[in-house]
Amino acid sequence: MPVRLKDIANDLNLSQMTVSRVLRGHIDVSPETKARVLQRVKELNYRPNVVARSLRTGYTSTMGLIVPSLRETYASELAKAVDKTIRAAGYELIVCLSEDGSASEQRNVELLLAHQVDALLIVSIQESTTFFQGLSHKQKVPLVFINHKSPDSIDNAVFVGIREVDVGRIATEHLISIGCRRVAYLRGPRTYIGDLRYTGFRDALRDAGLPHRPELVIDGLGAETSEYRRGFDGMLRLASGKRRLDGLVAYTDMMAVGAMDAAQSKGIDIPKEIAVIGSGNEVRLCEMRIPLSSIDTAGYEVGQSAGRTALRRISGAAGSGARNVLVPPKLVLRRSSTR
Questions:
Q1: Which of the residues 152, 211, 217, 225 has an alpha carbon 20 to 30 A from that of 315?
Q2: Whole-angstrom Cα distance, residue 224 to residue 312?
Q3: DSSP label at 187?
């Protein structure tokens, strides 16, 4: 016969409410009582009846997180932070991957809602928000969009991300601060995030009194091409142009690595002749060959903020009505831009 919460309470001469509060992570229980309950739970191999609890309370104490992949440092750090943040409040996290595209993402949304998660956190790969707008009319579960701006028309949604304009601005300001005056830019896709980072690049040039030179901006070069190849080919194009560059901002670290390899193939010294900075702070890339300066997009901090935001939305706490939560990016200096 399965062990019940009532059995643990009787064993320890405690109320069921006290045992329940310990298992839900409440902090208003003495450390001694908490230790006794957790030890007995471990001894008896107690597993809460989630179905019964959800029928009783209307909550499952679970949240869903959908990310495109966990291969990148950013996504894995984000998921780790969300899990740690909500686990401390007694919630469990279910993680789904949308690697196969928007159809896979939508299936995962429906799956998690069918499991009656108390909040849904999404790093969406869909540029259109039509699916989520339709969803909001049927579901009142809090939606937390991460790094993808939620439309104002979705009443139960909030956006958590970094200040994307600052990613391009901080990277460019750094290169200008070390003496670069002809700064090139390898653009990302023409998306919400890509456009904001490019705006930051242009703002930094303007504020420093430097001209924006369209010939030093390399556009996407085809989404079907790998990021490394885009960076490599982009640098070859820049190096063959009439205007010489002395600094390069890349939309991602992988594009920056490709650009550095291309520069070296042409005998260009990095950072002496061209200083390079990427974005994402992917350590496995940034520490290859010439260590790469990068903008840390704060995956762990964004995950913490997303988890806290979801908890506030569920509880209806004061201040939970904020629609945008923004985390500042950070500059990480390495040899590729150190002069």
A1: 152
A2: 40
A3: -
User: What is the model's pLDDT at position 25?
Assistant: 64
Equal fold, 59-162+299-326 vs 164-297+332-337 = yes
Instruction: Enumerate residues 6+ apart whose C-beta is below 8 A from 33.
Output: 14, 18, 22
Given a cut of 60, is residue 4 above it in pLDDT?
Answer: yes
Q: 59-162+299-326 — its CATH code? A: 3.40.50.2300
- Residue-wise pLDDT for 80-107, tens only, equals 999 999 998 888 999 999 887 888 888 9
Q: Class for domain 5-48, per CATH?
A: mainly alpha
Q: Which two tokens stand for residue 286?
A: 């940034």
The pLDDT, as a whole number, for residue 97 is: 93
In contact, 78 and 67? CB cutoff 8 Å: yes
Which neighbouring-strand residues pair with 65? 95, 121
DSSP strands (E only) in the chain: 62-67, 92-97, 119-122, 143-146, 157-162, 183-186, 217-218, 247-250, 275-279, 293-296, 324-327, 330-332
Which residues share a beta bridge with 331?
295
Interatomic CA distance for residues 249 and 168, integer angstroms: 8
Third-level CATH fold of 164-297+332-337: Rossmann fold (3.40.50)
pLDDT band (50, 70, 90) for residue 268? very high
pLDDT at residue 149 greater than cutoff 70: no
Mean pLDDT of 300-308: 95
The pLDDT confidence band at residue 271, using thresholds 50, 70 and 90, is very high
What is the tally of helices (H) and strands (E) in the chain?
Answer: 13, 12
Q: Would you kindly state where each structural domain of the chain is located, as residue ranges? A: 5-48, 59-162+299-326, 164-297+332-337
